[in-house]
Amino acid sequence: MDQMEPASPVLPEAPTAQIPLPAADSASQPLDQPTDDDDLRESLALLSQLAAGRMGLAELLTRVAEYVVMAIPGADGAGLTLLQAGRADTIVASAPFVAQVDAIQYGMGEGPCITAAAQGRTMRSGSLGTDAQWPRFGPRVERLDVHSALSLPLMTSVGVFGAMNVYAHARDAFDDRAALLGELFAVPAAIAVENAQVLSRAREVAGQLQTALTHRAVIDQAKGILISRIGCGQDEAFDRLRQMSQAENQKLHAVAQRVVDEAMQRARARHTRPSD
User: Fold this and answer.
1) In 3D, which of 123, 128, 197, 100 has the Cα closest to residue 156?
2) Is the Cβ–Cβ distance between 184 and 68 less than 8 Å?
3) Are 59 and 192 in contact (CB under 8 A)?
4) Which residue did the predictor score with more confidence, 36 or 167?
5) What domains lie within the chain, and their CATH numbers?
6) Contacts 24+ apart (CB under 8 A), 9-16
């Protein structure tokens, strides 16, 4: 019987870099140097080119974290966190120190990302060591020479499903404009990340379905062997397999595979036995 492959999910396309940008202070920026707007446009263009089907979820999230560092002036590193059942499920980082900071944050259950995800709004600090919002987290990361943080919730129409955490070693690294640029980047980033999540789940379900179909085929083969060997019916053959599974404390498909393998070995032995 032909097996039908599960249909691929239809994913919305991440918006391209056609996003209105806030006016920058061009008087203080030399004409031959890239502006913050240029960095944001470049990171948005790279974001729009990400192909979820060509890379795994963790790799795509890491790329997004790297692009947000490009987009936000003053950023030294960034991480992305996806929430599952109210807890941090998938965490990636663009730099090792970011992974350290986020490990402290989620280990304590306190920090700017947790607050941003819980409240669905941007959180910012320029002096983490003395910030009263996170009295345990701040002093710990200050010892890592991390003083500024900008956390941006990843949101869709159904709510917050993660956050982007942007960090800097300098104090007061993120001003109002940096926060605004981060919020502009977070909109298409959320769509790209959600698309990657949907595709990852679809691949997982497809893999589970394929495994289930393979196991079913092996069990049916083992039942046929038992029916032929002892002359029982299908229900009795299945019961025998189940009893063997319970007695040997092995999964049913593993027991069935052994029955099939042993039958194949006996068949090969008969065919290869030298004639008298």
Assistant:
1) 197
2) no
3) no
4) 167
5) 33-203 (3.30.450.40), 208-272 (1.10.10.10)
6) 9/198, 9/199, 9/202, 11/52, 11/195, 11/198, 11/199, 12/191, 12/195, 13/191, 14/47, 14/48, 14/50, 14/188, 14/191, 14/192, 14/195, 15/48, 15/187, 15/188, 15/191, 16/44, 16/45, 16/48
Residues 170 and 147 sit within 8 Å (Cβ to Cβ): yes
Q: How far apart, in whole angstroms, are the C-alpha atoms of residue 237 and residue 256?
A: 11
In this predicted structure, what is the pLDDT of residue 57? 77
Share of the chain above pLDDT 90, in %: 29
Amino acid identity for residue 178 in this structure:
A
**Is the pLDDT at 243 greater than 70, yes or no?**
yes
- C-alpha distances (whole Å) from 41 to each of 28, 36, 75 are 20, 9, 16
Longest Cα–Cα distance in the chain: 101
End-to-end Cα distance, the chain: 42
Return phi, psi of residue 86, to 5°. 80, 5
